[in-house]
Design goal:
alpha/beta, Enolase-like, domain 1, TIM Barrel, 2 domains, eight-stranded mixed β-barrel, three-stranded antiparallel β-sheet, 14 helices, 13 strands, globular, binds 2-phosphoglycolic acid, binds zinc ion
């Protein structure tokens, strides 16, 4: 039994300089910390990041939510077994029963449950990933990375509509080779942008390059050309995070093209990006329709045999929303973000449901992230298959890649590579 003896909560800053919460969970002499990440393109169904809306940090402080939680809930958590993720989840939900943790916010439960996991690993002298694999009865594996190359949307001041154009080093045989390939693609993208007169020094929230271009298509062409310039055509593919919720305005989508604004219906919006599949080497599309646009999601179901269709805002790492998606066959993969679920247990539940349905799982960081690397242990221990943490650049991103490279160096687990995409029947690689 590893009973929680103490919990400390305090305010720190994330990679965007925004206040967030850090938790330290102590089990006797042992302890571990975890910090809650936060998104910019957040969905309506994810656990709430509750800010104080008072004067401090222009409304962005979380000190008041920490104080309220510390007084009302924290004492009830002392004595719980830190290794009993389900019990901790149940206690937290008892005090804040709404799915989105609307009373105290989900940022505190996620930090506490992650710190409890890490503290419990420390008491066992175990690597964090092995505690996860014990819980899930899974075989650890190093995931296939999905790495941000070009950013737009909410992560780059709307430079283009697409939020992320990512590189997937499908045919790399090791994580070392995979990282070098995506690094080469990023460098080639910068060089091509610079040659066509764009400022190549701009860096977006997740470390991707960015430029104010005429259209999404122009950016896609830059990245496709960069893959070719790096000599990696056919070896590195493209993944998109369309983050369509951001472009949805009640009953239509709005896109920008050569200075013009165009309104599109759900059907027109999905048809527009579906056509890109014949032009660019795209193998994965995330949030290709807005979170509650069921018509748009249904339209994607016919593509599930051909590419990876990922739900991020659509499922918000919530098990019941995922189950609806599985039943309707509208997608084949879920993005797993622990802070969307609000607790580690809930995130693992959604991950297990997806795997049970033979769906793909992509463990993901947030655009406002931290120097911590537990996300990698989560992906490795659960054998999630894929991981998405942004670019190779910026320390909060490289902290994750470096943990993955550390686990690889010590031959902790095999690299899964393109087998991570086995859930897509007719993937053209
Ligand atoms: P977010 O972006 O953290 O700003 O939500 C990441 C994503 O949409 O996948
Ligand atoms: Zn997303």
């Amino acid at each position: 039994m590893s009973a929680i003896s103490k919990i400390d909560l305090w305010q720190v800053l994330d990679s965007r300089g925004m206040p967030t919460v850090a938790a330290r969970v102590s089990i006797g002499e042992k302890s571990a910390n975890a910090i809650a990440p936060s998104g910019a393109s957040t969905g309506a169904h994810e656990a709430l990041f509750l800010r104080d809306n008072k004067e401090s940090y222009a409304g962005n402080s979380v000190r008041e939510s920490i104080a309220n939680f510390t007084e009302d809930v924290l004492p009830q958590l002392i004595g719980i077994d830190a290794n009993d993720f389900a019990e901790l989840d149940e206690k937290l939900r008892h005090h804040d029963p709404s799915q989105t943790f609307s009373k105290y916010g989900g940022h505190i439960p996620v930090a506490i449950t992650l710190a409890a996991w890490l503290a419990s690993a420390s008491t066992k002298n175990a690597e964090p990933f092995s505690v996860i694999s014990e819980h899930l009865h899974s075989t650890p594996a190093l995931p296939l990375p999905m790495v941000n190359i070009f950013s737009g949307g909410a992560h780059a001041g709307g430079a283009i509509d697409l939020q992320d154009i990512l590189a997937v080093p499908v045919h790399a045989n090791s994580i070392e080779e995979a990282m070098e390939w995506v690094w080469l693609v990023r460098e080639a993208t910068k060089s091509l942008l610079s040659k066509s007169g764009h400022d190549q020094s701009l860096v977006a929230d997740e470390g991707g390059v960015t430029a104010r271009l005429q259209s999404d298509e122009q950016a896609l062409q830059f990245v496709t050309d960069a893959i070719a310039k790096a000599g990696l055509s056919g070896k590195v593919a493209i993944a998109l995070d369309i983050a369509a919720t951001q472009s949805f305005h009640g009953d239509h989508y709005q896109i920008h093209q050569a200075g013009d604004v165009k309104n599109l219906s759900s059907e027109q919006f999905v048809t527009r990006w579906s056509k890109w599949l014949d032009i660019y080497p795209i193998i994965s599309v995330e949030d290709g329709a807005a979170e509650d646009d069921s018509d748009g999601w249904q339209q994607q179901s016919s593509l599930c045999d051909r590419i990876q269709i990922i739900g991020d805002d659509r499922y918000a790492t919530q098990n019941d929303r995922l189950q609806n998606g599985i039943a309707s066959k509208e997608a084949n993969t879920i993005l797993i973000k622990p802070n969307q679920a609000g607790t580690l247990h809930s995130a693992l539940t959604a991950l297990s449901t997806a795997k049970g349905a033979n769906w793909g799982t992509v463990v993901s960081a947030r655009s406002g992230d931290t120097e911590e690397s537990w996300l990698v242990d989560l992906a490795v221990g659960s054998n999630a298959g894929q991981i998405k943490v942004g670019s190779t650049h910026r320390s909060e991103r490289s902290a994750k890649w470096n943990r993955l490279l550390e686990l690889s160096h010590f031959a902790t687990a095999p690299y899964i590579g393109k087998a991570a995409l086995a859930h897509i029947k007719n993937l053209n690689l």
